[in-house]
Write a structure and sequence with these properties.
269 residues; 35% helix; Spore Coat Polysaccharide Biosynthesis Protein SpsA, Chain A; nine-stranded mixed beta sheet; 13 strands; alpha/beta
Length: 269
């Protein structure tokens, strides 16, 4: 069965909208940053075009973009591109109530197919997306922390705040640790694996996303849905280890460094 791809693009982009004293954006980049739509930040082409080129290169053909009610420009842009290497559908998340809520919004797009879940503000390596297409069942990619330090645009200090994956001896997920304190990081065996929201889900995950309570942040979040699926629905999650890095476009300070790393890459949609 064909594996579909769900791209989470409905966020409000609060960090991207926040101006920075040392930002080096051009006029077009600054105008899009003020809207908070990170997927459309122009780096010669909109940032999401590079992400989707890798999606297509990995062999995927069906993409569902989860957008907010206000994201009309995003819908127009990718509607016009549909029919090339990728076919686009859209799911509307009526309120920004968290990542699991966004995934649940894509249920009609996905149907009974297995599907990937990716962020619209991360550029993932081809090998990671290919591995998720080839594996069976639920899975996630764990990105080796030292590889991220060497190859990502994110500082080591900022990476220390990213969620960490704890796997068992057979390579299956035990838990996701959000913002681990230093003493927890020190106890984890090498390689320490970071979660960058790079998942393969079976359709049963829609039930999990609908069944959880809000987190302390007041949102329905993917790690809680995964924990529910593991504990209540008997769903295992294989951890795929990547020694490559992910680029992160969360703030205006990220734009220049991401642009430098994507320079010269061909977009083919």
């Amino acid at each position: 069965m064909e594996v579909k791809v769900v791209i989470l693009a409905a966020g409000l982009g609060k960090r991207m909208r926040k101006a920075a004293a040392d930002e080096r954006l051009n006029e077009r980049q600054r105008a899009v940053a003020e809207t908070g739509v990170k997927a459309l930040i122009p780096i010669e082409r909109p940032f999401l075009d590079y992400v989707l080129t890798t999606v297509a290169d990995a062999g995927y053909r069906q993409v569902c973009l989860v957008v907010g009610p206000q994201h009309e420009e995003l819908r127009r842009y990718y509607s016009a591109l549909s029919g090339g290497r990728l076919q686009f559908q859209f799911a509307v998340q009526p309120e920004p109530l968290g990542t699991a809520h966004a995934v649940a919004s894509a249920a009609d797009c996905v149907g009974d197919s297995p599907f990937l879940v990716l962020n619209s503000d991360n550029y993932y390596p081809l090998s990671a997306l290919t591995a998720l297409r080839e594996v069976d069942g639920n899975a996630l990619v764990g990105f080796e922390r030292q590889s991220m330090v060497r190859g990502s645009n994110v500082s080591a200090e900022r990476l220390s705040q990213f969620a960490v994956i704890e796997a068992d001896s057979k390579g299956y997920l035990r838990r996701i640790i959000e913002k681990p304190p230093p003493e927890v990081l020190e106890q984890l065996p090498e390689p320490v694996l970071l979660s960058m929201n790079c998942w393969r889900f079976e359709p049963v995950m829609f039930d999990a996303c609908r069944s959880i309570e809000k987190s302390p942040r007041g949102e329905y979040e993917i790690p809680d849905a995964v924990a529910y699926a593991m504990q209540r629905l008997d769903q295992p999650f294989r951890v795929m280890v990547s020694h490559e890095a992910v680029l992160d476009l969360s703030t205006r300070a990220d734009v220049v460094s991401v642009a430098e790393r994507l320079k010269g890459l061909e977009v083919r949609l």
